[in-house]
Write a structure and sequence with these properties.
single chain, 450 residues, five-stranded mixed beta sheet, five-stranded parallel beta sheet, 17 helices, 12 strands, binds 5-phosphoarabinonic acid
């Protein structure tokens, strides 16, 4: 079971200026109200991620059973919620599980990045997975057209089996293409938003392809969801962490740093950044009043960033709350040999495991930050596997929605991102965006830009 250590978030002898535990009970009615809103959202079916552990995965098992065994690599084309979870799961498990098949995620429109992926794969044994809920995102569509053109030219007789598409079940341009061309397709459910969709076909298909046990992922998610049904705040890790983040945010902790002490979990800090930033960074509250809220999520890597960021974290502005991710048991470990037993500079390391040093350094950072009165908590993975990752995903999705309710904002929309998408359409000459294009032209004229 994923363990949540939160003693350095609450006031203690060591950390007298932290939030007193009594403060939590002042928010009982706010938490109950947030909980009720979540229940009613679930009833009107807009929080579909809660029910994903019970979904059928037969169609994915079937896809894998029928898949041509020549495919040993998948390239996902997607961005944001249609890419970050895939990447995070793969980088967490590829070394832990020695996954038999490879995954690349092309989640940008950088030509060098595309070139790098194309030069690392064998086209003959690669299947492409275009993932876009809306079916219109410019970045993903550009990648789809480039790749489709390449594979059509190279494999004119069987290009169809080399591309699968994951999109809305009815809407969007890609669904029409699926119908006319007959590609294998998967669905992004209506009731699950992009950044909450890693446990849908969006994340499950690529995970099953690489060799992960997606059933275990869902079992972990179910266990965490069940653990987070209670309104007893101290027994509900998602609500507790959400409430405490909310209270610290109200006290000026505008930055939330997630710092895994594990390279394998680093991409999960990226997944968290999107979830927290896009869900909670909002101009309007639910009554449409300007409130401009949101805590800035930052990722850091232990121990690497101890030599880059921790100076700032310990002595700079006290405007951050920290979450460490700790791994107790690593699949591979090394003992540091005692090469210089007579030299005290290094002999203390001799005979100790690398993982022991890593976790000692994490604890040392926790102590240093607590002594500097910087609130911090720790999520402990007994080991990195599908079950614990499923727990982690569900905990953070629930925590994000709950915190959104405490902030009185809608955690499920992203109007700020939509504005950027529209400006891109206008700049790139998409039909129907003449008004926006004219606005951009006059802006450019004013600045003397061409
Ligand atoms: O969370 C979200 O909704 C967004 O981040 C989307 O995932 C992202 O914009 C990609 O959208 P789409 O899947 O429609 O291409």
């Amino acid at each position: 079971m994923l363990r949540f250590e939160y003693h350095n978030l609450l006031a203690s002898k060591m950390f007298p200026s932290a939030i007193p535990v009594d403060k939590l009970s002042e928010y009982t009615s706010a938490c109950d109200a947030a909980h009720k809103e979540i229940l009613s959202d679930r009833q009107v079916d807009i929080l579909g991620f809660y029910n994903l552990p019970e979904q059928s995965i037969e169609h994915i098992v079937d896809f894998m059973a029928k898949l041509d065994p020549m495919f040993d690599t998948m390239v996902v084309l997607g961005i944001g919620g249609s890419a970050l979870g895939n990447k995070a799961l793969y980088s967490a498990l590829r070394t832990e599980q020695e996954l038999p098949r490879k995954l690349f995620v092309y989640d940008n429109v950088d030509p060098i990045f595309l070139h790098e992926i194309l030069s690392s794969i064998n086209m003959d044994s690669t299947i492409f997975n275009v993932i876009t809920k809306s079916g219109t995102t410019a970045e993903t569509m550009a990648g789809y057209m480039i790749l489709m053109d390449i594979i059509k030219q190279r494999f004119p007789s069987d290009y169809r089996k080399r591309m699968i598409i994951t999109t809305d079940k009815e809407k969007g341009f890609l669904r029409q293409i699926i119908k006319t061309e007959g590609y294998t397709s998967f669905i992004v459910p209506d009731n699950v938003g992009g950044r909450f969709s890693v446990l849908t076909d969006v994340g499950l298909v690529s995970s099953a392809f690489t060799g992960m046990d997606i059933g275990e992922l869902l079992r972990g998610a179910a266990a965490m969801r069940d653990r987070c049904q209670t309104t007893d705040i101290l027994a509900n890790p998602a609500y507790l962490n959400g409430l405490i983040h909310f209270l610290y945010y109200r006290q000026g902790k505008n930055i939330s740093v997630m710092m895994p002490y594990s390279n394998s979990l680093y991409d999960f800090a990226d997944w968290y950044r999107q979830l927290w930033a896009e869900s909670l960074g909002k101009r309007k509250d639910i009554k449409n009043r300007d409130i401009y809220v949101g805590q800035t999520p930052v990722k850091a890597l232990g121990t690497t960033d101890q030599h880059s960021q921790v100076q700032l974290y310990a002595e700079g502005p006290n405007d951050k709350i920290f979450t460490f991710l700790t791994v107790e048991n690593f699949k591979h470990d090394y003992v540091i040999p005692n090469l210089h037993p007579d030299r005290e500079e290094v002999s203390y390391l001799g005979g100790r495991k690398l993982s022991e040093l890593l976790n000692a350094e994490r604890f040392a950072t926790e102590i240093a930050l607590s002594q500097a009165m910087r609130p911090n908590c720790n999520l402990i993975f007994p080991q990195i596997d599908e079950y614990h990752l499923g727990e982690f995903i569900m905990m953070y999705e629930i925590m994000t929605v709950f915190t959104g309710k405490l902030l009185h904002i809608n955690p499920l929309d992203q109007p700020g991102v939509e504005a950027g998408k529209i400006a891109t359409y206008a700049l790139m000459g998409k039909a129907g965006f003449d008004k926006e294009r004219a606005g951009i032209d006059s802006y450019k004229k004013e600045l003397g830009l061409h």
